[in-house]
Structure formats: C-alpha cells, structure tokens
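Final report, results section. Input specification for complex C-07:
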Amino acid sequence: MGKFNEQKYYQEYDQLPPGELAIAYLHDAIREADELEDYDWQIQLRIELMSQCDFHSDSLEMYVIMPQLLKLYDEHTLQFGENQYTHTVLWHYKWVLGNAPDFYQISIEQFEGLAADFKKRFLSAGYSLRTYYSSLFSFYKYIDWEKAESSYQQFLKEERDSLSDCPACERSEEVTYLLDCDNLERARQRAQDLFDRKLSCKAVPEFTYGHFLRYYNLKLCKGERDSERDAAVCCDQVVKAIRFRKIASGYSGDVLLYYSLTDSKKALDWFKQHWSDHESNRHPLTRLYFALGMTHFWKQLQEKESTYRMKLPSSFPLYREDGVYDLAKLREYYETEALACIRKFDERNGTSHFLDVYKGIIAE
Amino acid sequence: MEEFRFQVNLGGMIEILSDHLYSSPEVYIRELLQNGVDAIVGREKTDDAFREHQEGTLLLELEEGRSLSFRDNGVGLTKEEIHQFLAIIGESSKKDLESGRLPSDYIGRFGIGLLSCFMVSDEICIRTRSVKSDKSYEWIGKPDGTYTINELAEPVPVGTEIFLVAKEDAAAYFERKTVEDLLLHYGLILPYPILLNSGGSKTRLNPVSLPWEKANPSKQELMMFGQFLFHGSFMDCIVLHSEEGGVDGVAYILPYAVQASAKQNHLIYLKNMLLTEKGQGLIPDWAVFTQCIINAKDLRPTASREGFYSDETLRAAQQNLGKCIADYLKQLAATDKDSFRAFLAVHHLVVMSLAIDDDELFELFIDELEFETTRGMMNGLALRMSKEQLLYCGMKEYQQLSQIFVAQGKLLINAGIVYTEELLFRMAEFFDVTVMKVNTDEVDDLLKDISIEDEAACVDFLTIAERVLKPYQCAVEMKQFIPANLPAFYYVNRDAQLYRNLLTTKEEANPLFGSLLDSFARDIEEKAANTLYFNLRNPMIRKMTALGNEEKLEDFIFILYVQTLLIGGFSLRNNELGRMNDNILHILDQLL
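Structure output:
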C-alpha cells in the first residue's frame, strides 16, 4: 500500500481539456492508485472519470466503472462498517440508472434488477426515493406510459434531499415530462426560469434546449412551423454547448435534423464536422438521432440531384477519391444504421415508439 | 359581476425581492446610485446651465457602521411625484423596463429599486426639493408599506437626499471600506463625481475620464487601467466597439491558458452603472481568453438588472464584439508573428476551436497551430507541406503505436488532443492533403511482411502461439519491423480496448452488473480487434521460432504477451494473471 501523488495529479490534470485527453489521463491515474491500493484515490479518480464520461464522452464507460466503484465501496463498508463515500457513490449510481433508457443493450429485466439494487441502497442509507422514481419514469416512458406516469407522480410525492437532482435539473425533468405530454405552453412557462438562467447548473439549460429542439423538430417535420423561431434559438444554444463546452453532444443529430429542415449549407457543414464523432460514438440513442438526421438530409438532397461533390477525409466510411458521392448510397448507409438501431430499441421496449419517430421524420 | 382589488403585503414583497430579485443587500448602493444618476439626467434635460457646467454630483456622508446619507443635486421631486413613485412599485416599473418604454438615458426607475434599501435599513427618509418648486418635503417610508409626507419649514437645496439608518444586522454595509468598495464597484465609470464624506475627509472616488473614450487611447494607459480593475496583469488589450447596443469597452487578454468551457468574470456596465460581473451573453462564448470591461448604452436590462434581455440588439452587439476580437487576432497574425506565437503558446486550444468554425480564421491560423506527432510538435504549415498521408489516431492508440512510428520515422498525429481531428478534416477540405485514421491495415503496412521462406519456418511457432492466446481473444501474426529490439507489439483498436475492459471488470463485478457487461461485450465483440505481432527482426523471436521444445515455447509466448500488455498499460485479467503465475513457477521449477 502507498500514497497516490495527489499534488502531481492536481497540477497535471487541471491543465487538461475535458474529453479524451482527460479520460486517458484518468485511466493511467486509476491504474496507479490501484497498484498503490490508495482507497481514497481509487474512489475519487473513478468518480472523476464517471463525470468525464457522462458530460464529455458517450457514457458507455460509466457501466464499466460503476461495478468497480461498487466493489471498492462494498468491500470497504464490509470491513469498516462506515463509508464516507456513500453519498458520492449513490450520486453516481443514479447516473448509471438514468442513462439506461438510452442503451438498448440493457434489457428491461436488467434495468429492473439495477433499479431494485439502487432502491435497496438508497433506502438503507436513509435517502428519499425521489431520484429512483424519476429514473423509472425515464425508462418506462417509451415502454408503458401508465407505469411511467405513476412513477412520475411518485417522484413528485417523494421529498427532496441531498441526493435529489439539483433544482435546475428537476425543473428540466419537469419540462421534459410536459413535452412528453405534448403540453408545450406549460413546458415553455416552466422552462422560462431555466432559459433566463435564474436556475442553471452544469447541464441545464443546455439539455433543456436539447429536449425542446427534439420536440420542435418533430413538429417541423409535420409541417407545423409555429415554433420555428423558438427552434432556431434552441438549436443555437445546443450548438454552443456542443462546440464550446463539449456537452450535450447527444443532441448533435437533432441539430443536424434542424439544419436539414431549414438550411442545407449548415447541415452539410455540421455533417462534415461531426460524422467522425458519430463513427466513434457508442451511445446508441445519440447514434440513432444522428443517423436519422443524416438520412433526412441525404433524402432531401436526393430529391434535387443524385450525386454530390465534396471533399472528405479518407477515413470517411464511404470515401471516394474523386469526391463524387452517390446520395442514394449515403442515405442507405445512415438509414440502415438508423433502422437497425430502431429495431433494437423497439425490441427491447416491446413498442414501436422509435419506428413511429422514424416515420415522422422520414415521411413516406 | 363584482370587482375586488386584492391587497399586496409590502413587507412580504420586500422579502421576495431581497430573496429572489436581488443577489445581495449590497445592491442597495447600486440602486441609490441609479436613482441619483437618473435625477441628474432629468435635471440636465431642463437646465442647460446645469448640464453645460457639469454640475451633477453625488455625495455620500457616512457615519461609520450606523447611518448614511446619499445626496444628488438632480431634478428632485414634487409632492405629487413623491406619491407617484411609490404607486409605481410593482405596477408599471417592471413593465416599462421589459417593454423598453423607459427613456433611453435613464438607468433605472425611482421606486422599485428603492425597496432594496429596506434590506439594510428599517426606515427610508427622503428630503427633496424639485427644480420646479420652492417647497421642500420629507418622506418617511416603512417596510410595511406605510409612509408619511411633511412639508419642511427650512428649504433644502434642489435635489434629493436619502437617509438610511443601519439595521441591527446590516452595520457591515455601512462600514467605510465596504461603502467605498461598493461605490467604486458599481459606479466606477459614472460620468458624475461620486464624493464620499466620512470622518471629516471628502474624496472623489471615480476617475475623471475613461481611457477608451479618448480618440487614440494609449495601450499603456489601457493596460494600467486593466491592472487596476482586475488586480492582475494581461498579455495585451483590445478596444471594443459596437454601434448596435451602443457598446464600448476593452478586452484584456489573459496571460494564462483557460479551458473553452471556462466562464470569465467581465465587468458589464449599463449606462455607466455596473450591471453584472458575469456578462454571459454579451461577450462571445469563444472569447474565454479575455476579461472585459464594457459599457452598454442601448441594451435592455432584465428586471433584476443583473443581465440583458436576449434580443436582436444583444445578438448584433455580441457579433460585433466578437468581430473586434477576431479582427485583432487577424491583424496580429498578419503583422506581428512573434506576438501572435506568444498568444498561441498560451491560448492555442481556444484558437483551434475558433478555426474549426470560421473559414477565414482557419486559413489565417492553421499554419501556426501546433500538433503533437511522432516527429515532435509540428505546425499546420509543416503538416500540409509534408506531402505525406496525414495519419492520425486517438490517445490510447497513439500511446501504443508511437514507438513503432518513431522508430521508423513515420508520421502519426495524436488526435486524442481536443480539436485536432476536426482541424485535420478542415485541412483535407482546404488543401491537397489526405487525412486518414489509423486502422489495422495501416498497422499491417507498417509491420513488413516476412519472406516466404521465413513464413514456412514460422508455421509451427504461430500455430502454438495461436493456441496459447486463443482463450484471451488475441490473434497472432509474424512480421518484421523496426525497432528490432522490440520483440512483439500488441495492437488493440478502441472497441477491443473497451471489450477488454468489459471482460476484466466483469470478472470482479456482482452478477447484476456481470450480466449487463456481458450484454455490452456481445454488442461489440465483432468490432473488437486485437493482435500480437511478433518481430522476426528481433534475435530472441528468431531463436524462439527455432526452439523445438513446445512446452517451453508456450511459456515464453505467454510471458511475451503479458509483457506487451503491461507495457501498453493494460490491466491483466484474472485468467491472464493466473496463467502468468503458473508459467513463472513452471520455469523456475525447470531451472532448479
């Protein structure tokens, strides 16, 4: 057993931009802390890695880190009875649960197993089940609305405590619920404090803008253009969040779809800047919406011409040296992926929600 | 139908205001200053001599920790106006602010702002005489909404004096140092003298003129002003101007690197009165390397007057301020390379992010931007002139591959560093260069094929290696490559890294997560490629291929595999660790 060199860590880590560089650094630091068996740093570095993965990467790695974190935590608690990291570990556990709807790899049974474990840990540590119910709502909303609705009502009844999401996040969740209920007017009212930044946090209102953009896009696809101006504002905010803060990249496909609906030049630029992120992204829901946005865009271009000339790096999967791209092939590439993803999500959920979304966007 | 009017509890309202509208009781000084300035502006409109002789003055008299009197020689109030300004609370002032109906040269509105004084005092006493009248009045207001008005026997000078007595828990807001700091904080750039009379001495607190308002402000003067304002030194400064919103100010360039997500504290003034120190929304997000002081004349404040309404004018002003900063950088890049490089050395990440979005900035900056490569740091110019394929990869792959690329003098760019990949893509768009992400094929090319004769000689060795490493999902190949002292090289792509992590974690995880990790592993199994490349140039490997002892060979191959894993920074899985221990014991046993 030894002592992790925290001074060196603070000096070096603080210099790094968020994202891949910081994540690679944390992996090395974790290995060092593991070798030294420095418990505090084994926990703290993993917590930091969870944050990086949630805010600046595709979240998948959280599912690798969380069991490591729980193992360290459980062993220590078993040995000493008390654990100063209870709050921190549970706080991050709720991220794992909260992200589950976005990964089709997680079956309903697996989610329910996780949720039961999560609930047990929260109750035994004396915390309210507010977050638990909010996670149930998010998971079931595309599976069983009645179950989701009842979870949402339970969420409202449970008391807020230190493990509840911050007031800004909870307001954003409320706004999402209202949008899911198609109550735009109320959603706008409740979101106003977020948009005025009277309530804000690391993720909000940027994610709230993302929820609205997704909602508005579907309306625009139906030809309802009343909210076009609001959609433009939301899109602008999401673009800023992705570009300058490296957060909200889950809405990259929504930006693409909005541009595809309103400004082809911007859509093309967005595609050129983000196709590579898409190729390496492992977050299924993000991939699905990007693939949908691309499908829509190529389909639109296809209506005017059959090929398009552009210069792309040779790593682009359909790269052509002459720069002449067959739009049907481009569309097929993304549409195939979108449909495969939709099938996996809908199979897991036992519904046709995502197929309906696809139909709404790529009108037949 | 009967109509009723509900009662408003002013005491409750004050609590709401102090809890939600104002960020701290300190803002009472800001509100006093605003009322004073508006009164002076009002008088200047009707009194030419007053305006021309610049007689407007704000005077504070302080009894340390106990009371404060704030006097302006502005337009003053008639009896009717006194009644009216209270009637306005909560009824029209906020509406006027939001609709922009207030006169453009008024900072605030006498009324709602005055309520903030109740956060520090239980009573507000106002003595005033209007410029339109000979009569003087005294108004005394209480937090419960009641007030009295008396005509004063002794007339007071034209203007308004507000008298506050510190609440028991608010004495700190009446200390000289606090009041002085707050006056400077909020009123630093007000165009009227702010005089403080305390302990028998009268001092002017704010400067007589502002450096950027001069026709040709000297850089030295601007820099000194920045040092005074922000208590720090800067690399350089940029004068800012926008017709839209009537915005002027200075952006100071920070001498240290900041992350693109950082939020700077800018000093944002509205009509010369401090509005906010956050300033998000006015300074473009990308300009994180600056700290700014800005005065806006024609932007609309929010009700709390701590930010601006997001409207077309604000967006236009933000664009113009962004243009000022971008123009400065362009100018610097074109005319003063040394300063530009010094700037880049500190703020290259921000510049990289700018260059991605803007064609003009990209062309201007790309040649100077530096990239980490296997040939050391190379700038954009060197890369695009190299006439080689620009191969890049992520951080982890770079760590694995760089040793071979360096040894062979080949170019590989580390795209694990933020913005690198996007910039390389833009290079492919703008210039005649080929940009390519490393994949297994490139790695194969780099590791040269062995001769047919060698291939035949290695068949047995590779068969055994394949058998040994199959349980660890690792393929094997025999190649020859530089450096010759590297016996083997383990290459995994990003998916294989994750796959490996999933399996390693699963071994230790509880069954609940174990099943989850299995699901993820199944999903990427096909895409995961990991290969152990043996180097036939290495004398030890050549010896091993000739070794007839199969048992020994199995042990050696496995030790080599584990060694490459550890060099690559991978944690060992349980089955690998177990077999490694067995191997070592086996070898020791044989040696003994």
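The first strand of chain B starts at residue 58 and ends at 63. Chain B has four domains: 10-204, 226-335, 366-443, 447-493+529-591. This concludes the modelling results for the funded period.
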